[in-house]
């Protein structure tokens, strides 16, 4: 998959999407009220839209893929970069035409932009009826009642406890094979460039038993891969004592469930259920997590491990709490324990406040050292209210930011091709996710390392594991053939 950020192509082979729109699917139950949701931003938002759909399903709503027939339209929004917010504002003005045609249409803004702007959004965007932050979705039925009496509704309360762990998400846009499971919410890190701690609130971990149950239910329904989601999964921590003493005995002699324990619990659901996770923060990943990944074949050998920059002074300004040497030592540890075959990807920001040309080159040299399989690459976009906005000047001119970003992207493209080329002639087990984007006679699946392989369908179908041999590669795809055994 490719996405466009600004006017620059971004290589994006994994499932995270930053400015991609995801739309609710048709259910078409006649007579029911219809909900249409567009989700922007990260996987957490996509996962939250599934929670929102579930909450409203209980109120008699069904989802639709057509805004024209919707009674309620929600935009689940992102604030991570300025462009993410501009996209939503442009979309709101487009949606105005539907509201003109159908003045009864309720328009709600959900997610991070709702949380950041609160009731100001109602003043700025007149067509919006309802503004709700990420921790207040249980209030949606009441808020919709309020709106039906002609009032506007706002709830941007951030919670220290809410994890929605009792809500079974309605799977939207599902391929029936892969699904996301949120394991925590919020973020307690204060990376100086980042708006997330302000829009998502304090970090909290979800009951591990509800996570395992959700994974088991998905497996029973035929799903074969789950991705455990959190802003910083390595700091997952759940204490039985704090949450529910009666459950203590169920956790074999551990009082606290950490991320390595949780990974193991989910891995044990079935060897046929693949488990992925995102995102790992370099400061928190432990050897325990790496050894657990090694122990279970179904724990996928792929770590999204955002560096953000390869220069220690910039990392300090970013408040990432590690330096270049620490980051490199963690990369070495991953390679030592899991081998060079484990795929590693990163996020990189070009042109952060005060970044010199030399410091930018350190990012390039870090990329060369690690040889990332993929990266998500951005130029710095100052966000109101963040530490960086208060402390540092956004002093790198846009054309310099873009030029540096282009250098980062070009290097990543070379690295991705080189990493992919090493797979030629080798055989990999892939989980089939469906037809390839180009043709119905071809299927596509992923390797454990999250590489997409495309091959002739033969008798194979979605949801199966199949071995494929790689014949050729592009930047983002392995061109393969199924090996029938
Ligand atoms: N929790 C994850 C990242 C979440 S945001 C982590 O810690 O890695 C996804 C990515 O967006 C970040 O990793 C960062 O690279 C990018 N990002 C965040 N704020 C940004 C900003 N103000 N400008 C440009 N990119 C930003
Ligand atoms: Fe943002 Fe840092 Fe938290 Fe990631 S870890 S969400 S970059 S504050
Ligand atoms: Fe965007 Fe919020 Fe995710 S700001 S990246 S939708 S946590």
TrEMBL record:
GO (cellular component) term, any one: cytosol
Subunit-level organization: Monomer.
Protein family per UniProt: Belongs to the methylthiotransferase family. MiaB subfamily.
Chain sites annotated for binding [4Fe-4S] cluster 1: 42, 78, 112
Stretches assigned to the MTTase N-terminal domain: 33-149
Places the protein is found: Cytoplasm
InterPro entries with a match to the protein in the record: Elp3/MiaA/NifB-like_rSAM, Methylthiotransferase, Methylthiotransferase_CS, Methylthiotransferase_N, Methylthiotransferase_N_sf, MiaB_methiolase, rSAM, rSAM_horseshoe
Name of this protein: tRNA-2-methylthio-N(6)-dimethylallyladenosine synthase
Provenance organism: Reichenbachiella faecimaris
Function according to Swiss-Prot or TrEMBL: Catalyzes the methylthiolation of N6-(dimethylallyl)adenosine (i(6)A), leading to the formation of 2-methylthio-N6-(dimethylallyl)adenosine (ms(2)i(6)A) at position 37 in tRNAs that read codons beginning with uridine.
GN (gene name): miaB
Residues of the Radical SAM core domain: 173-418
Residues binding [4Fe-4S] cluster 2, per UniProt: 187, 191, 194
Cofactors (names): [4Fe-4S] cluster
GO molecular function, one term: 4 iron, 4 sulfur cluster binding
Ranges for domain TRAM: 421-484
Cofactor note: Binds 2 [4Fe-4S] clusters. One cluster is coordinated with 3 cysteines and an exchangeable S-adenosyl-L-methionine.
Main location: cytoplasm
Pfam families: Radical_SAM, TRAM, UPF0004
């Amino acid at each position: 998959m490719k996405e466009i950020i600004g006017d620059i192509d971004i290589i994006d082979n994994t499932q995270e999407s930053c400015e991609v729109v995801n739309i609710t699917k048709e259910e078409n139950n006649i007579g029911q009220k219809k909900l249409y949701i567009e989700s922007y931003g990260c996987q957490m938002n996509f996962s939250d839209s599934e929670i929102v759909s579930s909450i409203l399903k209980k109120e008699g709503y069904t989802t639709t893929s057509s805004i024209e027939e919707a009674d309620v339209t929600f935009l689940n929004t992102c604030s991570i970069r300025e462009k993410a917010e501009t996209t939503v504002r442009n979309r709101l003005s487009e949606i105005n035409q539907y509201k003109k045609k159908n003045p009864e249409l309720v328009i709600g803004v959900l997610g991070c932009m709702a949380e950041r702007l609160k009731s100001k959004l109602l003043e700025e965007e007149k067509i919006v009826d309802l503004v709700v932050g990420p921790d207040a979705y249980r209030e949606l039925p009441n808020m919709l009642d309020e709106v039906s009496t002609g009032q506007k509704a706002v709830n941007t309360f951030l919670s220290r406890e809410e994890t929605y762990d009792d809500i079974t998400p309605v799977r939207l846009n599902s391929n029936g094979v892969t699904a996301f499971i949120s394991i925590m919410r919020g973020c307690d890190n204060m990376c100086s460039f980042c708006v997330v701690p302000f829009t998502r609130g304090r970090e909290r971990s979800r009951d591990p038993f509800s996570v395992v149950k959700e994974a088991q239910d998905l497996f029973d329904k035929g799903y074969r891969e789950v991705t455990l989601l959190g802003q910083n999964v390595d700091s997952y921590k759940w204490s039985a004592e704090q949450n529910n003493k009666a459950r203590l005995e169920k956790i074999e002699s551990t009082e606290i469930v950490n991320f390595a324990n949780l990974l193991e619990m989910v891995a044990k659901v079935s060897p046929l259920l693949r488990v992925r996770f995102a995102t790992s923060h370099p400061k928190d990943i432990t050897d325990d997590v790496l050894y657990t990944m090694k122990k279970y074949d179904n724990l996928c050998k792929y770590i999204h491990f955002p560096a953000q920059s390869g220069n220690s002074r910039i990392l300090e300004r970013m408040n990432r709490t590690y330096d270049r040497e620490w980051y490199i030592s963690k990369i070495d540890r991953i390679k030592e324990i899991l081998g060079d075959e484990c795929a590693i990807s990163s996020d990189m920001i070009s042109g952060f406040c005060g970044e010199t040309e030399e410091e930018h080159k350190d990012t390039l040299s870090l990329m060369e050292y690690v040889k990332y399989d993929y990266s998500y690459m951005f130029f710095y976009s100052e966000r109101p209210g963040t530490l960086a906005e208060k402390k540092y000047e956004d002093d790198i001119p846009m054309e310099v930011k873009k030029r540096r970003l282009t250098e980062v992207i070009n290097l990543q493209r070379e690295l991705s091709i080189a990493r992919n080329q090493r797979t030629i002639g080798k055989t990999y087990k892939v989980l089939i996710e469906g037809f390839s984007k180009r043709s119905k006679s071809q299927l596509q699946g992923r390797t454990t390392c999250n590489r997409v392989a495309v091959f002739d369908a033969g008798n194979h179908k979605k949801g199966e594991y199949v071995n494929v041999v790689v014949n050729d590669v592009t930047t983002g795809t392995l061109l393969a053939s199924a090996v029938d055994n």
